[in-house]
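pasting input
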Amino acid sequence: KQEVTQIPAALSVPEGENLVLNCSFTDSAIYNLQWFRQDPGKGLTSLLLIQSSQREQTSGRLNASLDKSSGRSTLYIAASQPGDSATYLCAVFSGGGADGLTFGKGTHLIIQP
Amino acid sequence: DAGVIQSPRHEVTEMGQEVTLRCKPISGHNSLFWYRQTMMRGLELLIYFNNNVPIDDSGMPEDRFSAKMPNASFSTLKIQPSEPRDSAVYFCASSLGSGGIQPQHFGDGTRLSIL
């Protein structure tokens, strides 16, 4: 059974710093990996989706990498801003009839002004 | 474009009552997912529909839970009878195509409290 782990569970950094969030998964046979952002009381917003054949995806100040063989992904946030404060979730799609996503429990990020 | 719409946003009810959660997916999306989020277990898939047909309901916790998708623009998740341990945030998501190949778009969730 696929398991997804995110480290750290919480992170607080001053505004302007670059930071890295980590995600690991136990079964490397995945189709894709998706990073989401969740604001308090809100649903999830998809940030980046990396297909299994890709190594990274970029969107603005965000860069996500995928090392499928080692079961790891990172989300890099450049020049962090207070508006980046949220919970960031990593999810993998393994297919094989289990068509939903398997989620990590998230990293709660606080950017201090 | 309208996103995934869920109702109600909040529901508080007493143990034993029937609860019905509703979801309107994004127009044109043919996959619909119901998830449950708790502090202890995080986000878990309950059931997945493709073209209105339930494909995988292995995540539905027990017979008290049922889900329907009578047409492409509406789905319900029903709990009868409800129990305090069902308290959680329930999310609906939709996507193009089948399964998780395309990004999933989430609604704002229904926060359910069973007293």
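fyi Chain A touches chain B through 25 residues (CB under 8 Å).
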